């Protein structure tokens, strides 16, 4: 019996080896990446530029790929193509999840969950090289929207008070990132060639510093609104924080490799833990800094393709999962 068992085990190993070889040579790859704490949700070959999750149903996720918008209604098991365009930014109305705004070289709006779209770019100035880098909705008033553009000619920060029907320039500067104070939506920070702050819903702005390079990401501590963290990129970027609402800045990059560019930052509302997409000569990755930690730690995902142009990082509304959009598809990490 032992001899028969060994024979069958040997046959099984050979069969598995043949199947693995066959899969690799037929372009079929395993669902899980090298680091099995992350689950691969597919979209191989799609460079992900932006993502958004339905605030009322975390199984509904919108993802912009290389040339189209895709949607899943089952948490990433299957994907449907909705619209042929690259979305550099997206935001979903927290009061009506059927209403979605998309940032392309212009701004478009859907009121049926992404199936049809209409232009809502009146007042938005753009040239052949501009793009809408972020879109945000005032958490207390869905009629108030913010948009930021970057372009060779400069870019600008825009505000709409009529649900996107028209836009007005409020800051003449290329802007790449934005954060609204979770405790006071009148306070806004934007990042571009530095950090700007508004205390009147974007009507007036004060320059509050240039920590390093271009400010590609901003988060506000959900526990302490005076604490602002920024990620810098494309020059000599790194991570910095302010403990006084932007009046002064200090390094906050312990554990991050030198000469890294931080492209995305997100924070858990429940405990303030931070997650960052980092790009550097070593390939970069996703880093986490728990609220009580003294440094950042890389959380696997070495097999994921991350670059300067196509990546996004979002947290589902129930804070169960972290989603990473990469140059090779979408990944999901279960949060502790």
Automatic annotation (TrEMBL):
<dbReference type="GO" id="GO:0010411">
    <property type="term" value="P:xyloglucan metabolic process"/>
</dbReference>
<dbReference type="InterPro" id="IPR015943">
    <property type="entry name" value="WD40/YVTN_repeat-like_dom_sf"/>
</dbReference>
<protein>
    <recommendedName>
        <fullName>Photosynthesis system II assembly factor Ycf48/Hcf136-like domain-containing protein</fullName>
    </recommendedName>
</protein>
<dbReference type="InterPro" id="IPR052025">
    <property type="entry name" value="Xyloglucanase_GH74"/>
</dbReference>
